[in-house]
Amino acid sequence: MKMTQLVFGTIILSSTLLAGCSNRADIERLSSDVQMLNSKVDQISGEMSTVRSEVQDLKRDTAHQKQRLNNKAHSYRK
């Protein structure tokens, strides 16, 4: 993911420089924007890790509850 961010930032900066209509302020603004986007991507990545963990916990709990219900249903059939 970091490589994608680096490539994205490099493309933006180089295209701005090649356009010939940029100045120092534009480059600094774009650099700031790239840094902001990188931090947001990092934040979302962390949140996704948390969500994945919670989903795994819920799957495990669901399987456990399903097994308990199956055991109860089986004991009533006897």
Automatic annotation (TrEMBL):
Residues carrying the lipid (S-diacylglycerol cysteine) are C21
Q: Which residues form the signal peptide?
A: 1-19
**Keyword field:** Cell outer membrane, Lipoprotein, Membrane, Palmitate, Peptidoglycan-anchor, Signal
Q: Name one GO cellular component term.
A: outer membrane
Gene3D superfamilies recorded for this chain? Answer: 1.20.5.190
Q: Any idea where the Lipoprotein leucine-zipper domain is?
A: 27-78
PROSITE patterns with a match to the protein in the record: PROKAR_LIPOPROTEIN (PS51257)
Q: Where is the composition biased (Basic residues)?
A: 65-78
Protein's UniProt keywords contain Coiled coil:
no
Task: Name the segments for region: Disordered.
Answer: 56-78
A Pfam family assignment:
LPP
N6-murein peptidoglycan lysine modification sites?
K78
Q: Which InterPro entries match?
A: Lipoprotein_leucine-zipper_dom, MOM_Lpp
Q: What is the protein named?
A: Murein lipoprotein
Q: Which organism is it from?
A: Candidatus Regiella insecticola 5.15
Taxonomy of origin reads: Bacteria, Pseudomonadati, Pseudomonadota, Gammaproteobacteria, Enterobacterales
